Amino acid sequence: MQPYAGLFDHPASIIERMVNNVEKVIVGKRETIEKLFIAMLCGGHVLLEDVPGVGKTMLVRAVARTIGCESKRIQCTPDLLPSDVTGVSIYNPKTAEFEFRPGPLFTAVVLADELNRTSPKTQAALLEAMEEKRVTVDGVSHDLPEAFVLLATQNPFDYEGTFCLPEAQLDRFMVKLTLGYPDSVQEKQMLDRLLRKSSLELLKPVILLDEWIQLQNAAQAIHVDDTLMEFIVRISAATREHGELLLGASPRASYALMRAAQARALMEGRSYMIPDDIKELVVPVLAHRLILSSQARMAGRKAEHILANILAGIAVPLLRFASGK
Asked: Residue 257 in contact with residue 290, Cβ under 8 Å?
């Protein structure tokens, strides 16, 4: 029996429709859209880093509309306080008690726009929410929605007025993605769509939130062979032992890579994982978590290059079986 039997007998076709729906707004960035949905299928958080004006915010809004859920936006500024994000307890004179007023984090899809423009103190307020899907205010914990994901955008760290995100926070983002500039044909298509009507306002949901949660459960049920777990562990261990890296992949990163590969298998219409699922996602899942040595940075090395070399040096496992269970 397929792990996703039930409401969605063909989840790959549903996800395909979702990707196509977002492409009505975001032109020519299919690979980025697919990886964004892969992370969200795992309940993972996404960091979108790119220069201003390439459509990061529009992408997040289009995704929220596609899965038919409520979304809220946090515009990160240097004077943003932690309570502006998590919520605050307010004294009610009628009841003579403090009442909790939830902040924008209490939403299924939260857009933190220009995350690295807010202070480290406010950035730290997101750590508990990202890891445990809850926030603690005045000593009382409050659970966030089951489908909560944080989709954050940031400008490159060398832009004026930005704060570097700490390693602990970067490690909580399942993937880091970029959009990049469109080519001339894609940019003309975008202008043509915007000239006629606002594509985003016309975007309709493809599925509802409850159905989206069922898709997430289906991704978690994808079969993972022991040899593939060992493959992931060898990749992570190699980053920890690499001479050009000061900080390698954490155990959380290994788990994120496995979960993301499961979601890719679901997107490809399989009920089991294969090595290509892992290899395709090594860079977006691991690269932002690595810290290069000063010598490597001076030599112009990039985390992506190091990961490519690591992959080239590790034998790809042969599955003992690839059943559809």
From this structure: no
CA distance 109 to 102: 15
Partner residues linked to 110 by β-bridges: 72, 150
Distance CA 289, CA 167 (A): 7
Domains in the chain, start-ordered, CATH in brackets?
1-221 (3.40.50.300), 222-325 (1.10.8.80)
At 177 the three-state DSSP class reads strand
DSSP 8-state assignment for residue 42: T
In sequence order, the β-bridge partners of residue 142 are: 135
**Residue in the structure block whose two tokens are 């997040």:** 60
Measure Cα distances from 241 to 50, 158, 170, 235, 314 in Å: 30, 29, 20, 10, 14
Would you say 230 and 317 are in contact if contact means Cβ atoms under 8 Å apart?
A: yes
Gyration radius (Cα) of the chain, Å: 21
Provide the mean pLDDT of the chain: 88
Cα end-to-end distance, the chain, whole Å:
6
The three-point CA angle 244-246-249 to 5° equals: 100
pTM above 0.90, yes or no: no
The pLDDT, as a whole number, for residue 215 is 93
CA 84 to chain centre: 23
pLDDT in tens, 225-272: 999 999 999 999 999 999 999 999 999 999 999 999 999 999 999 999
What contacts 29, CB < 8 A, 6 or more positions away?
Answer: 23, 55, 59, 179, 180, 182
Structure tokens at 223: 């079969």
Is the pLDDT at 2 greater than 50? The verdict is no
Give the Cα-Cα-Cα angle 78, 81, 87 (nearest 5 degrees).
145
- 183 contacts 28 by C-beta, under 8 angstroms: yes
Paired with 173 in beta bridges are 45
pLDDT tens-digit series, residues 105-161: 999 999 998 888 888 888 888 888 998 999 988 888 999 998 899 999 887 765 556
**Range among 36-40, 50-54, 76-80 rated most confident:** 36-40
